[in-house]
């Protein structure tokens, strides 16, 4: 059974309770879909942390870094999943920012 959730991609927050600024996106998802979205967020967090440490190694250029590629892939997959599960306003917002335009469903 799908439930209503509020998602803030910046803070990687998923909540059934709307408060402060946690409602960047509104989605309707099953428990399994929420687990999958949480896994994507966790992967993004790990890749971001690895990119931070890579930034302190001056001999390794940004454009040749697997952790940056993993973060970029993770955020695109998260946006795609949020789009698929999102309400009309969520889909419109994602369409407006154009994040999925090159690989839209």
From TrEMBL:
<protein>
    <recommendedName>
        <fullName>Hydrolase</fullName>
    </recommendedName>
</protein>
């Amino acid at each position: 059974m799908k439930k209503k959730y509020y998602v803030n991609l910046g803070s990687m927050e998923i909540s059934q309770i709307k408060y402060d600024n946690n409602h960047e996106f509104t989605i309707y998802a099953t428990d399994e879909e929420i687990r999958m979205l949480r896994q994507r967020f966790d992967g993004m967090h790990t890749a971001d942390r690895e990119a931070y440490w890579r930034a302190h190694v001056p001999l390794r250029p940004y454009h040749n870094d697997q952790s940056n590629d993993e973060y970029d892939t993770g955020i695109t997959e998260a946006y795609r999943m949020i789009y698929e599960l999102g309400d009309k306003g969520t889909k419109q917002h994602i369409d407006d920012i154009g994040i999925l335009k090159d690989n839209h469903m």
